[in-house]
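# nightly structure sweep
# worker-07 picked up a monomer target from the shared queue
# config: single-sequence mode, recycle default, output format = structure tokens
# input follows
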Amino acid sequence: MSIWPSLVTICALVLYLVVTINVGRARIKYKIMPPEMTGDENFERVVRVQQNTLEQLVLFLPALWLFSQWVNPIWAGGLGGVWIIGRILFAWGYYQAAEKRTLGFAIGSLVSFTLLGGAIVGVILSLKS
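# output follows
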């Protein structure tokens, strides 16, 4: 097993922890207490970053590990690193304005589809051997 997918997994989880903490900070800043999920537009964007990151992790993490197992762990780690950068760009952009999230979302989505597609091909090719 390679260390690179493990490091990317740790980075992805830390990223998620940071965006979750940001929701708590935004609740205090915009005075929106649980269970409320709406209010100030700036708060709602912070919540969407956290929720979208969680939604993307469900696809990304299994695809990362399957790609690592069936294709190449070093490539999985590299692609995973690009995904992390994409998610940071997504969050940074979305915190400013909803329309600024597109580049980060595109990068993350492309990486996730690449990991999943590679994993599918890797598994299918292993069935033939």
